[in-house]
Specification:
There is one protein chain. This protein has about 525 residues and is mainly beta. The chain has helices at about 30-35, 410-415, 495-505, and strands spanning about 5, 40, 50-55, 55-70, 80-85, 90, 95-110, 115-130, 145-165, 165-175, 210-215, 220-230, 245-255, 270-285, 300-310, 325-335, 345-355, 365-375, 385, 420-430, 440-455, 465-480, 485-495, 520-530. This is Alginate export domain-containing protein.
Length: about 525
């Protein structure tokens, strides 16, 4: 079964990208269903054919998803503040909220007979957040927001090629489109799901605006040249959006295919790969809204990354040929002509992830350790910005849980995705049981996160220890088939001195400071269905 599913990309690019505290950042029936997972932008599934005549094909599809959350002792007792219609804030000590979205899609192709195919896609997303709104200390989606916005609208051509004895496809695609490099650690989400857009956690929006992308997909090499911009609107997103960013760049990947796979177009089909990425920010919002912030100084920034993954160094005698994997990414951000209070930018982010599948054991358990470091500086208002900017982070296509957001409690709602060090351990197994069909799949998991700030002073905290929290989450993920999936999760977090200090710092000015404790929890359920 294809495991290319994603959470708040969890816009985790949550998530894509989810935010955190503005630094970088239900119903019983939902729980009973226990459904969850998001289709990655590149995932190919059977669509409903509406028209097929003389080389012209028109297809339609619909995605729906929903989620429900309960967070006892939210943010270690600081709570989450939602905005009332009067503009005043109301505190929720135990946050309860839900999300729902629908995405109708229309895809078309025309095989011209002249050696190329015309392709196009249009889609929209309607979404809402219910209940208290997301559980950040000042909720970004309180007040039951509802919205319907355009997602994709693109047109292009595909041209088959034969070069150097191989087969390639050249694609030129202009307009609004989903676009990701590898697993989305740097580029994966073009639209942030906050404020009046709704569905902040689920974050079903991916699309960048054009001009567009040129892709060359081959048998062992692929590359992209892109000129895109993020879809930012602080009026819609209540001031929580990322800076509007126009960027141009390229990526080149060498890869090895899994048996029968096509890693040129499908990330999940790569048995191993190495990718070089570079982009230049040609224009970005540099308003004072972003002074001394993690996302300041994008305008003129140069960003380079080296990423890799899969079974890079096969040694059959050690079982490394199929069981051992090693993923990683190193990103460098440089800018010698910044603004927003800085004289230069010198920042980096990275992760290293060795993993092993015990294929000889029952349930075929998979264990990985990931070390993640989002760079930071000792002085939040120094002349050199060293705090890492996650740009278009997307929560990863390889795992539903275990993505790049460090946990379902602290990493999701409290910790900054900058100036942060994460030790992460994930253990998952697939029991040989089938609940409703012969090919359905249940995956159980345990996920542990140890979070620490690199420099508490860089987050404006003085005389505070580095440790933010420890967290353990338990998950059950169910996939009925390629179009229907589900999950439930429960977790507990234990605060450290930096975590409690972050909780205190996030309480809105003028509101009473409540007792900040040692524990916080989460219960969540969500579903995904493709028609």
């Amino acid at each position: 079964m294809n495991n290319s599913f994603v959470r708040h990309a969890r816009s985790h690019a949550t998530s894509v990208c989810r935010g955190s505290r503005g630094f970088v950042k239900a119903s019983c029936s939902l729980v009973a269903l226990g459904l969850a997972a998001f289709a990655a932008p590149e995932e190919v599934r059977a669509e409903q054919t509406l028209v097929s005549v003389k080389g012209i094909t028109l297809q339609g599809a619909l995605d729906i998803g929903g989620s429900a959350f309960f967070l006892p002792n939210t943010n270690f007792g600081a709570g989450s503040y939602g905005t009332k219609s009067s503009g005043a804030l109301v505190r929720h000590k135990n946050s309860t909220y839900g999300e729902f979205y629908g995405k109708p899609m229309l895809m078309g192709s025309w095989q011209t007979g002249w050696g190329f195919t015309v392709i196009g896609k249009a889609s929209a997303i309607g979404a809402t957040t219910l209940g208290d709104g997301d559980a950040e200390e000042v909720s970004q989606t309180s007040g039951t927001p509802r919205s319907i916005y355009l997602e994709e609208a693109n047109l292009g051509v595909e041209v088959p090629l034969k070069m150097a004895g191989g087969n390639q496809i050249l694609t030129v695609l202009g307009g609004r489109q989903a676009f990701a490099v590898d697993d989305g650690f740097l580029i994966g989400k073009g639209t942030y799901s906050a404020g009046d857009r709704g569905a902040w956690w689920y974050a079903p929006r991916y699309a960048f605006s054009g001009p567009g992308v040129i892709k060359l997909e081959g048998d062992s090499v692929r590359g992209d040249v892109f000129m895109l911009e993020s879809n930012s609107d602080n009026d819609i997103d209540r001031g929580y959006d990322r800076p509007k960013t126009k960027f141009v760049g390229f990526d080149v990947s060498w890869f090895k295919n899994k048996p029968g796979g096509h890693g040129g177009s499908t990330y999940a089909d790569r048995a191993a790969y190495v990718t070089l990425t570079y982009f230049h920010v040609r224009d970005a919002d540099g308003s004072s809204h972003y002074d001394y912030s993690t996302r300041a100084d994008r305008n003129g920034m140069n960003v380079a990354a080296l990423s890799w993954g899969g079974t890079l160094f096969p040694v059959k005698a050690l079982g490394i040929s199929k069981n051992f994997t090693f993923y990683g990414n190193f990103v460098s951000e440089q800018n010698s002509h910044p603004g927003n209070g800085y004289k230069s930018v010198e920042a980096y982010g990275m992760f290293f992830e060795p993993g092993y599948t015990f294929s000889m054991l029952p349930w075929k358990p998979h264990l990985f350790y990931r070390y993640t470091r989002f760079g930071g500086g000792k002085n939040a208002e120094g002349s050199v910005k060293r705090n890492y900017d996650t740009f278009f982070l997307y929560d990863g296509k390889r795992y539903t849980y275990g993505g790049y957001w460090p946990g379902e409690i602290v990493g999701m709602y409290l910790a900054p995705l900058s100036d942060l060090e994460v030790h992460q351990f994930d253990l998952t197994g697939t029991p040989p049981v089938h609940l409703f069909r012969k090919k359905d799949e249940l995956k159980l998991g345990v996920h542990f996160y140890d979070l620490s700030l690199l420099y508490p002073s860089g987050m404006g905290l003085k005389n505070v220890g580095r440790h933010v929290s420890n967290e353990v989450d338990f998950t059950a993920e169910y996939m009925l088939d390629e179009t229907t999936s589900a999950a439930v999760a429960a977790g507990t977090a234990f605060s450290g001195p930096a975590g409690r200090a972050l909780s205190r710092a996030g309480v809105p000015t003028g509101y009473r400071m409540h007792n900040i404790g040692r524990h916080a929890g989460v219960l969540e359920a969500y579903f995904y269905k493709h028609f």
